[in-house]
Write a structure and sequence with these properties.
This protein is of the alpha/beta class. It is built from twelve helices and 14 strands. The strands form four sheets. A six-stranded parallel sheet has the order 3-2-1-4-5-7, sandwiched between helices. It has a three-stranded parallel sheet with strand order 6-8-12. The structure holds serine.
Length: 317
Amino acid sequence: MGSKTLIIGACGQIGSELTNRLRSELGIENVIASDIRESNLELVNSGPFEIIDAKSYTEIKNCIQKHNVGTVYLMAALLSATGEKFPEKAWDLNMSSLLNVLNLAKEKIISKVFWPSSIAVFGPTTPKQNTPQRTIMEPTTVYGITKQVGERWCEYYFNNYGVDVRSIRYPGIISWKTLPGGGTTDYAIDIFHKAINEGHYDCFLTEDTALPMMFMDDAVKATLDIMNADANAVKIRSSYNLAAISFTPKELANEITKQIPDFTINYEPDFRQKIADSWPNSIDDTAARQDWKWKHVFDLQTMTNEMLQQLGKPTIS
Ligand code: SER
């Protein structure tokens, strides 16, 4: 088995930052980025890059053998809002890509897998406040269904085939480098772009919709923390609850107003409101904090300051 790392879905919101971080830690030549298309040229040009359709077992396997890969981060997925528009496409991509990678680990072609789950595994019947690690899970989005089934598969492959797969349930991830695509928590990024460029935001959720969120730096840190932990410390092999901050659009808008006093916001909920209403308000992540010492850094204020500072910087032309 090889020793290099492959990121599938490397051009996406989390994939791109994870790739950069892994490249700075492991060396550029040791981290292979891949995606279905070259949608992030900065990333594509920053080191080894391969076009891979994550639905193709053969394309992934060929890339792994060509580059001597031992560890795979599977970051390709259709997210919640896009998934509701294309349910079968979401099922197809999210499930086939995971089974491809788990099977490659089962066949000992790779040795370690990271696969992200999501707060979308929870549903309207789940306790909403401080949602426990183990609780009722009846997701109502196709995205959530794929994450729930995926968690069962991860645990199954660990229990039955000894596959070293590690996973966390990401909350909404807030970042400034690469735009998110097709999620329900995307409002918490759009709002910054609109606040800076237009001074106004039309929010697709109601003002009091509380959702669990996290700044990108913390999400990347959590991902590396669980991947670097001793195998024995990773006791949960479905997926870990992970939390940092929880807030409503109104609370975020108030925080932004402290720095952009003229900022205004309107609330015009669309189909994504129903998705957000089915998810927890906040998450209990005691298990991650105990098992592999997870600790977040950014709170609402420091995250808002960082977003406004980074996005407010004049662009170099
Ligand atoms: N951020 C994701 C979404 O909104 C949740 O995992 O779909």
